[in-house]
Specification:
Number of helices: 11
Distance between the termini: 26 Å
Strand content: 15-25%
Shape: elongated
CATH superfamily of the largest domain: DNA methylase specificity domains
CATH architecture of the largest domain: Alpha-Beta Complex
CATH topology of the largest domain: Adenine-n6-DNA-methyltransferase TaqI, Chain A, domain 2
Helix content: 25-40%
């Protein structure tokens, strides 16, 4: 392969002539492992110092809000695992390789069972963090990780990981550009959380009648779901269904009310197990493991669709019950309290169609149901747009990392 002017071939690929290749142990003067022997013995409810673990770390973000605390006295006797602002921490167990820089507000905190890469004036911490989180950095971890239930790696392997190293001014320029994108991602994450919280608050007010939309004043009625909808109205199982190709929805194909995938199934003869035939606007209630992730308002006009018997299918009566109104109630506190009561003491987390029919929901008239559904659907659409923007921004960052961290695009 011809190498263009100003670049050279190396063991990590083609890089600029003025870049070098160094193992981690020559980039940073010190690498070590956080506290590994019985860290829980230091936990103290009265403690004020966070003890970070791998679950507190994502790519260049540390969330200490859920971290256990230790006392200042314990922190003083654990200097080897104490962190300073600018140090890097890398997850060793669970999601090995994920790295973040310790921010100023966590200066002096402690950590357990993570690799610590100490800061040094000879390199930019945020540049190295981006490099370790890059495709090149994570692949090196994958080559040495071990374990089945939980993947992990040894620091003795990590210190020999090779990285392409630009001059310090270029490191700072690269980290500055990528940090700007990280800041945008962080702002989008905060906005998404805020919008989700607003939607939850709106659901609590609108679905209970505590807050009424303008123009609505009539009384509401508490009704059993089975009295106002059909449940499991059509099963696939007759000989007339043989030979058709069906789009099949499993519990795993649904994520937070969104259909993320499906499979195709052809039945040469009547299936041994019934499956639910679907129509547009049917509401699918997860019954095998009731949770907020697996409920779905099915919206497809074309094709032959069926779903797993792990769902109870609700079909609303047109002009009487709004399917969106019922769907949003599956995420409401009043319905989830009823489901939790049904599950209490059960060794197998499941409900059945009879339980779904017995759920009690407050109903206004159809016009108000529709108005409430439109408000909440608009909030969902706004959230979906923000999440799509976040996904595009994250993809942009990945592309920037590939260009900047390999020297294909130069900033200085």
């Amino acid at each position: 392969m011809e190498v263009k002017s100003g670049y050279k071939k190396t063991e990590v690929g083609v890089i600029p002539q003025d870049w070098t290749i160094k193992p981690l142990k020559r980039i940073s003067p010190s690498q070590s492992v956080g506290l590994v022997i019985n860290p829980s013995t230091y936990f103290d409810k009265a403690g004020t110092v966070p003890l970070l673990v791998g679950s507190n770390v994502s790519e260049n973000v540390i969330d200490s809000t859920t971290a256990n605390r230790i006392t200042k006295a314990s922190n003083e006797i654990l200097p080897a695992s104490r962190l300073a602002a600018g140090d890097l921490v890398t997850v060793r167990v669970g999601e090995p390789g994920v790295t973040a820089v310790v921010p100023p507000e966590l200066d002096g905190c402690n950590c357990a069972s993570m690799m610590i890469v100490r800061q040094h004036p000879s390199f930019d911490s945020h540049w190295l963090c981006c490099m370790m989180n890059s495709q090149h950095g994570r692949k090196q971890v994958e080559h040495v990780q071990y374990g089945t239930a939980q993947k992990q790696f040894n620091i003795s392997d990590a210190v020999d990981f090779l990285y392409p190293v630009p001059p310090l001014p270029e490191q700072r320029a690269i980290s500055g550009a990528l940090n700007d994108v990280d800041a945008l991602l962080g702002a989008l994450d905060n906005l998404i959380v805020k919008k989700r919280n607003l939607k939850q608050a709106a659901m609590q007010q609108l679905l209970t009648g505590k807050t009424r939309l303008p123009g609505f004043h009539g009384e509401w009625s508490l009704k059993r779901l089975g009295d106002v909808v059909e449940t499991d109205p059509e099963n696939l199982g007759s000989s007339t269904d043989a030979g058709f190709t069906f789009n099949y929805i499993s519990l795993e194909d649904v994520d937070r009310g969104t259909l993320t995938g499906h499979s195709e199934q052809v039945f040469a003869q009547s299936p041994s197990r019934a499956r639910r035939k679907l129509r547009n606007n049917d509401v699918l209630v997860s019954t095998v493991r009731p949770n907020l992730k697996s409920h779905l308002q099915f919206q497809h006009q074309n094709g032959n669709w069926v779903c797993s018997t792990g769902f109870c299918v609700i079909r609303c009566k047109e002009g009487e019950t709004n399917p969106g109104y019922v769907f949003f109630h599956l995420f409401a506190a009043c319905v989830n309290r009823q489901i939790d009561t049904l599950l209490t003491g059960s060794n197998y987390p499941a409900i059945n169609s009879g339980d779904v029919r017995a759920l009690e929901i407050p109903f206004p008239d159809y016009t108000e149901q529709t108005a409430i559904t439109e408000v909440l659907s608009d909030m969902d659409a706004e959230l979906a747009a923000l999440e799509q923007r976040r996904a595009k921004t994250h993809a942009l960052k990945q592309g920037m990392m590939q260009e900047l961290l390999t020297g294909r695009t130069r900033l200085v």
